[in-house]
Structure formats: structure tokens, C-alpha cells
Design goal:
Length: 369
Amino acid sequence: MATARILDESKVLELAEPLPLDGGQSLPGVRIAFEAHGTLNAAKDNAILICHALTGDQHVVSNHPKTGKPGWWVRMVGPGKPIDTDKFHVICANVIGSCMGSTGPASPSPDGDPWGMRFPVITIRDMVRAHIALLDALGIEQLHAVVGGSMGGMQALSLAANFPDRARAFLVLASTARHSAQNIAFHEVGRQAIMADPEWREGDYYAHGRGPEKGLSVARMAAHITYLSEEGLTAKFGRRLQDRDEKTFGFDADFQVESYLRYQGLSFTGRFDANSYLYITRAMDYFDLAEEHGGRLANAFTRSKARFCLVSFDTDWLYPTSESRNVVHALNASGVPVSFVELSAPFGHDSFLLDVPALDRVVEGFLNQ
């Protein structure tokens, strides 16, 4: 295992040795940005690792340094909350390939210039290897639990399959063991929007003052639709027009839902790197836990002694309940203890991030079991 040092003042782990990758390469000079909340006990057995989703980051509780907004899961994590920092030491790390302090395409390469598209292809399992390096550096041999939603759930499943002794429990929310053709298709639309933007410059845009903001904005708009539900969109916007003195027709944002999506796209460009979006979406598309283990999903969990809980949402059409059931069936086939619940919520895939009291009860109950 690579040696490392923790830069306590900035919550960054620096690996002293290159990180081996699934593609056969090794990534040198890896930095892993993370946050930790709550106290690690003397036995170092009360730690929970939270794995973030595609456009998430380590700022699970603290205000985001670029947007100033509260942490993305502040409603779930904290003193007295379902993931209780009075009881647990909660760690969240920015995945490699991202752009919030961990090594990614915007980071300096060995020659001093940003990696850009020279950055090696990464996988979900590569992200997990970086998490394991962080745990090793912190001296945590076994986690109380790993918790993740969406792409975070993929990381949790990958960690369970490849490092089965490193956690006693896994909580997987609104996730899947592999992407469907539809999932891959939506991601490809976003990638093509980015690469079609003249400002992308084959990924070498860092020295030009601006990146492919229009393409990244469109990519975010397309993806954001998949995170919502028809019920939620209809309730929030319907076919309502923008408030104007005169009714206009054309290509302005006439409908409220248009304005909402444009805002989501534009605000996203201020906090996320376009090349990171390309690399991370590709890592998600490559993820296939069954293929990694001889083509049978149950094989991924044969070494596990942990307990599992999977949660899906009835309005999530990105990762519908059938995807969670496939994982549950595989865990059952491996003789692994697992609980499963489908919750009702109007918010679609984003339900795991929003106010769903039933989810709070599931999370708290499972972690305190």
C-alpha cells in the first residue's frame, strides 16, 4: 500500500507513491481532499465513510467554498441527525478525477501543466482505491459503515466487493450495479455537448481563461432532467409561463421550467470542471460489478461478512427499484444479510438528497442497529 502524508491544515492526503489504476497505468502525485466530522474513538471503529455522487464533493456538511451554499447533505449529517456526528466519525472524500481538491484533469501533471485529456481513464474501483489509501493514512482498519447514494452507492458496492473486510455495514441509496443503455445514452449526450463547444479545445482550455461553459451547461441541463420526476416537475412548474407584462413567443425562456433548467446549467459551470464531467461520467458507464466478478453479480459478495441495506424510490426512473432488487437478489444468493425498502417520494432520483422523513428513519435505524 502506498505511503502517504496528511496535510491537516487543508484536509488533503498526499500519496507518496503512484496509485495503481484498472487501466494498467499508475497515477502519480495523487492528492485526496476530504472532510471529517465528529470524533474518532480510541478503538477507531466508529467511522462512517460517505461517498458522494457524480457532481458532489467532500463538503457534505460545510459550506461550499465556491457557491457559499450549505453542504449537500447537511440535513442528514450532524449532531443528533440520522448520521449522528455525536456518535460517529464521518469522513467524506472528493473522488479522484473530480475538481474540488482531489487529483483530476485540472490538476498539474508531472510536467507542471494541467493534465487535461492526458489524464488516465479512471473507474469506480480506482476511486475506491483512493478511499482505501485515505483510510490507511487515517489508521482506520474497519469502518462502522459505508454510505452512498447514486454514484456514491456504486462506490459503496465496489468497496464491499473488492475490500470486504474494510466495513461492517453498507447503506446503498438510489443506485445500481451497472448502467443501462439508457443511462449511458444520457451521459453521452452530455459529453457530446461539452466536446462540441469550441471552447473545449480538445480538453486544453485551462490556459485560455474560459472553458466550454455552454456545453457543460447543456450537459447539466440534460442530466438534471433525469434526477427529477414527471410528477415533481408538473407540481413545481406545469406549463406555467414566466411572469411578463407581455406574452412573447420565441426562443427565450418562456416557460418556467425552461428558466429553471437554464439556471441549473449556468450555475453548475461556476463550480465544476468540464473535463472532470467527461471522466467521471465515463467511469460510471464502465461500472459493471457483475462483469468484474465473472459475469455473476452474486460472486461480488461471496467474501462479505457485512450487513447491507438498499433503498430505492418509487419515482426514480434513472435507477428504478428493479436495479436495487437485482443487487438484493445477488446478496441473498451469497447468503449476505440484507434489508431493502422502496420509499415513496415525489422527487425522483434526487429523493435521497431531499426531505424524505422515511429515509431519515431508515438511515438512523440501520446505522444504529
